[in-house]
TrEMBL record:
Catalytic activity: 5-O-(1-carboxyvinyl)-3-phosphoshikimate = chorismate + phosphate
Organism: Zhouia amylolytica
GO molecular function: chorismate synthase activity; FMN binding
Listed name of the protein: Chorismate synthase
Summary of the function given for this chain in its UniProt record: This reaction introduces a second double bond into the aromatic ring system.
Gene this protein is translated from: aroC
Domain of life: Bacteria
Annotated NADP(+) binding sites: R48
Similarity comment text for this entry: Belongs to the chorismate synthase family.
Cofactor binding mode and count: Reduced FMN (FMNH(2)).
Stored SUPFAM superfamilies: Chorismate synthase, AroC
Lineage: Bacteria, Pseudomonadati, Bacteroidota, Flavobacteriia, Flavobacteriales
Residues holding FMN: R125, S126, S127, N239, A240, G280, K295, P296, V297, A298, T299, R321
One of the record's GO cellular component terms: cytosol
Tagged with keyword Ribonucleoprotein: no
UniProt xrefs under Pfam families: Chorismate_synt
Length: 354
């Protein structure tokens, strides 16, 4: 299986399955001398971990990361950073009923067709549990870019969405509620809705918005490796993501150029920011902001029809512990992938000037 690595100079390779012994990764290219805040790394993991609230999967995992190499006396050494996160609360028997059947809209069928074999316990390698490794690597990337601020939040659940631009919101409020929405009233409505969806044995999707402030000017390459293209790839690599838009996004297609153009101030900043902080594939120093759309979780705790390995129509019902809505736990994953992209381009930009 290829495709387990992400990045060029700042590169992370992950390993492990949802119900294996452990997850883990290797980070290559992290500069030497970066002082590591271990509490900040664990805090991001805690924001992603299961069992943290009543509206997420109740699998109980501490998700405590253990570093094996690349850090000495609290600072990076410049060598490969190895880490593991042990799985402690697997219930593989919850998945015995899908051993010979395929869950709709999951990777079960295509994995079996591609490899002739699959780990059916929680989806194996296709499980979103793999994203814990991305959060560790992204937390370190954030510490490489200490002056850059990454802040993601839930902006929509189902048909409920924020009707204010992010500039009018206090984004710090997002972490004060379990939905991670920076509008307390809307967060309460979203929470009630997710709980009702869970009672129905159903699931719902949503949108995570990410804002990146204090990005240096000049990150990104102007042809195939545009900054927004790499951000799009990063976000679309996250489980359950169905769409990515940055800046004015699809709304920009409805505007006239005279309204959409970001006019300059004398200091090089712009009066508007429909470009989303990126022009010609290169960061311009303005806020980078984008939306990431997540589909409803495919596992339903209700009866439905599917097929087995022989192509027979069979009845199935989801069992075990699953999220009714993934977006609250996806917030730190989106931040992590954004940080990995910017750290990589930061190092590429620095290398090009040597």
């Amino acid at each position: 299986m290829a495709g387990n690595s992400f990045g060029n100079l700042f590169k992370v390779t992950t390993f492990g399955e949802s119900h294996g012994e452990a997850l883990g990764g290797i980070i290559d290219g992290c500069p030497a001398g970066v002082e590591i805040d271990f509490e900040a790394i664990q805090k991001d993991l805690d924001r992603r971990k299961p069992g943290q609230s009543a509206i997420v999967t109740q699998r109980k995992e501490p998700d405590e990361v253990r570093f094996l190499s690349g850090i000495f006396e609290g600072k990076t050494t410049g060598t490969s950073i190895g880490f593991i996160i042990e799985n402690t609360n697997q219930k593989s028997h919850d998945y015995s009923h899908i051993k010979d059947s395929y869950r709709p809209s999951h990777a079960d069928y295509v994995y079996d067709q591609k490899y002739g074999f699959r780990d059916y316990r929680g989806g194996g390698r296709s499980s979103a549990r793999e994203t814990a490794c991305r959060v560790v690597a992204g937390a370190i990337a954030k510490q490489v870019l200490r002056d850059v601020n990454f802040q993601a939040f839930v902006s929509a659940v189902g048909e409920m969405s924020l009707d204010k631009p992010y500039e009018e919101l206090d984004l710090n409020v997002a972490e004060s509620n379990i939905v991670r929405c920076p509008d307390a009233e809307k967060a309460s409505e979203m929470e009630s809705y997710i709980k009702e969806i869970r009672k129905q044995g159903d699931t719902v999707g949503g949108v995570v918005t990410c804002v990146i402030k204090n990005t240096p000017i000049g990150l990104g390459e102007p042809v195939f490796d545009k900054l927004h293209a790499e951000l799009g790839k990063a976000m679309l690599s996250i489980n359950a993501v169905k769409g990515f838009e940055y800046g004015s996004g699809f709304e920009g297609s409805r505007m006239k150029g005279s309204d959409h153009n970001d006019k300059f101030n004398t200091d090089g900043t712009t009066k508007t920011n429909f470009s989303g902080g990126i022009q010609g594939g290169i960061s311009n120093g303005m806020d980078i902001y984008f939306n990431v759309a997540f589909k409803p979780v495919a596992t339903l705790i209700q009866s439905y029809e599917t097929i087995d390995k022989e192509g027979n129509i069979v009845k199935m019902q989801g069992k075990g512990r699953h999220d009714p809505c993934v977006v609250p736990r996806a917030v730190p994953i989106v931040e992590a992938m954004a940080a990995l992209v910017l750290a990589d381009y930061y190092l590429l930009n620095r290398a090009s000037k040597i």
